[in-house]
Hints:
The chain is mostly helical. The protein is built from 19 helices and twelve strands. Helix 14 (381-389) crosses helix 17 (432-444).
Amino acid sequence: MPPVPSPTVRTRFAPSPTGFMHLGSARTALFNWLAARHAGGEMLLRIEDTDAERSQPEVIDMILGTLEWLGIDWDGEVVYQSQRAADHGAAVDSLFADGKAYWCACSRDDVDLRHKERGGKPGYDGFCRDRGLAAGADRVVRFRSPADGDTVIDDVIRGEVRFANADIEDFVIRRSNGSAMFITANAVDDIFMGITHIVRGEDLLPATPKIVLLRESLHAVDRPTFAHLPLIVNEKRQKLSKRRDDVALESYRDRGFLPEAMVNYLATLGWGPPDGVEVRPIAEIIGLFELSSVTKSSAFFDVKKLESFNGDHIRNLSAADFVSRTLPFVRTALLPVGADPASFDPAAFEAMAPLVQERVKRLDEAPDFVDFLYHDPAMDPDAWAKTMEKDADLARRMLDAAIDLLGALAVWEPVAINDAVIGFADANEISRKKAQGPIRVAITGRAVGPPLWEAMAVLGREVSLDRLGLARASVG
Length: 476
């Protein structure tokens, strides 16, 4: 089948279905997508599932779902690399025909033993290069790398990168079981799909000269534009690792990060808008994004900064959208285990939602702002000790006043509640902040939370007075 004709820019995201979506993979997908959309080109999606032992079919659905959650779409049908095995095999056969490949009977142990004996540069030493071996069990096919000269990569981000061909070992292009190696399938499929821009992490830069040599040996007409993205590192400037860092994109989704905040923040990991305004809609980022503006310096993944982005995007939601997105977190957290989700009454949350929206940085924080509306509060012992025990006289005085004054209110609404309590505090020269403390702890169980008077208005007079009375009895 002939290669697909290309638009000016055609990128691809090519994940392996071997595990969760890594933050680095999500950033790679995003930058490929941004480059394509900015240029009015295409981004294709290829699932690199040739490693049958490690590929997990269920992970494919997770990859597709995560991309859809982020709003990263792709053009055309998904390409499954495992379905193109015949083309990969034909490419290896053509390399044989041109004298660019040969059979090798060396095991990894053989290679390592010879290196141990001779010293020098590690890796394959070309032992079978000119032996003229035929196909056989447990034999692989190796590419015949040039012995001299350089392979030069013009990278959009890193400039000219030069590799001495003498340092490139004769690498394996077909496994002993007959399947093509990743690097072979990668090069062949990029040619077939007409990929014009290869955008990927800098950790793959050492493999790039092999890709170029394969493409040239397969008579590819055009060389793609390469752009190797900077590593994403943690606060210790270490590459993000699934063994020590929280790198699964799904965990951020499940903790209440918005997809628009995530793509916005990921876009700043190695790139920044020319006007310096980082928090902005993705449509604006598409218009501003340039691969040539990506830095080669490592990008620090700062969770606190991500939370700040997320808080800004939360506040930009409409009230109805905020309720819709947050309600699942609230329902899950506040319903008893095994309860019917339909039994949850969202009215109290909806009433408080505008006030909660102003204060949370993640959607999963919302339940802590409204849990006291749905059940008796779990008392924070530190808040109780600081507010009710440290100054018990003030606590008793304010609780007594609140019970008397609020019980006599003609209307139960925030302004009336505020005027009654604050009026008493002002008349008795009590700090307004200190005056509210015992009442807040009695009502919510915490020392901080949403605006108190609005919360009490939603909670209702009867429940509010009951909680004030229980707290007063406990103070003694």
